[in-house]
Amino acid sequence: MSLSWGQSEWTMVVVTLTSVHAVPAFLLLLTLVTLLIGCMLRRKRKTEGTYRPSAEEQKQAESQEPEKPGLPLPLPKEERLI
Fold first, then answer.
1. What's the chain's average pLDDT?
2. DSSP assignment, residue 6?
3. What is the pLDDT of residues 42-74, one digit of tens each?
4. Where do the segments described as Disordered lie (predicted)?
5. How far apart are CA 15 and CA 7, in angstroms?
């Protein structure tokens, strides 16, 4: 069985297949590298961190609502005549 295609046709097929598979392969590789770096950074942050209790206290103070002046309890509903 003899193939009637010339060298240029086969080259074009190989280049097309390579370019079609190269983009997904590159995206997969990029995704894997990004995940690997993310995992490494997360692990490093767990083992090597700085302890700053004042920063944590400030974060908690900002997230809490300021106390409203006045009565500490809400007023009861107004009583009405039947």
1. 76
2. -
3. 888 777 767 777 877 887 777 666 555 665 777
4. 45-82
5. 12
**Helices (H), ranges, the chain:** 7-47, 53-63
Measure the CA–CA gap between 11 and 3, rounded to whole angstroms: 14
Give the span between the Cα atoms of 5 and 12, in whole angstroms.
11
The C-alpha atoms of residue 49 and residue 41 are separated, in whole angstroms, by 11
Report the C-alpha gap between 68 and 18 in whole angstroms.
68
Mean pLDDT on 10-29: 77
Structure tokens at 81: 């005549």
Sign of the dihedral defined by the CA atoms of residues 26, 30, 36, 40, in that order: positive
